[in-house]
Amino acid sequence: MTIQRMDHVSVVVDDLEAAIAFFTGLGMELEGQAPIEGQWVDRVAGLDGVRVDIAMLRDPDGRGRLELTTFHTPPAIRAEPEHAPANTLGLRSIMFVVDDIDATVAQLRARGGELVGEVVRYQDSYRLCYVRGPAGIIVALAEQLG
């Protein structure tokens, strides 16, 4: 048994519209939005009375997808500090390759993003940084040099 591909990463957010604006500002494309509820999702999630809204986004080449989810019931819970540092165990960041890291950071700041550290040069290969986005997720950015 082997996997065929990774389909998407899911992020639970408290403000779906703000999260959509953040990630579409980064260049992702909104595929669609839908309310989800019913016994099947209760059984998959292991929760009762699930009622969520989701938005599916894809990256420009169409191979990477992101699911943004807002829970109406049961309410979302915080399992860690909202602004957990980069060394916190668990899913910590999602990385995007960008063509202009400075312009991208400026766009994300305009949509509520916060630069975690600073933009740094890694050898002669990349400029890198972390930006904190919706629900405290760390969005890593990489601009390839040369």
UniProtKB/TrEMBL annotation:
<feature type="domain" description="VOC">
    <location>
        <begin position="5"/>
        <end position="144"/>
    </location>
</feature>
<dbReference type="InterPro" id="IPR051785">
    <property type="entry name" value="MMCE/EMCE_epimerase"/>
</dbReference>
<protein>
    <submittedName>
        <fullName>Glyoxalase</fullName>
    </submittedName>
</protein>
<dbReference type="Pfam" id="PF00903">
    <property type="entry name" value="Glyoxalase"/>
</dbReference>
<dbReference type="GO" id="GO:0004493">
    <property type="term" value="F:methylmalonyl-CoA epimerase activity"/>
</dbReference>
<dbReference type="GO" id="GO:0046872">
    <property type="term" value="F:metal ion binding"/>
</dbReference>
<dbReference type="InterPro" id="IPR037523">
    <property type="entry name" value="VOC_core"/>
</dbReference>
<dbReference type="InterPro" id="IPR029068">
    <property type="entry name" value="Glyas_Bleomycin-R_OHBP_Dase"/>
</dbReference>
<dbReference type="GO" id="GO:0046491">
    <property type="term" value="P:L-methylmalonyl-CoA metabolic process"/>
</dbReference>
<keyword id="KW-0479">Metal-binding</keyword>
<dbReference type="InterPro" id="IPR004360">
    <property type="entry name" value="Glyas_Fos-R_dOase_dom"/>
</dbReference>
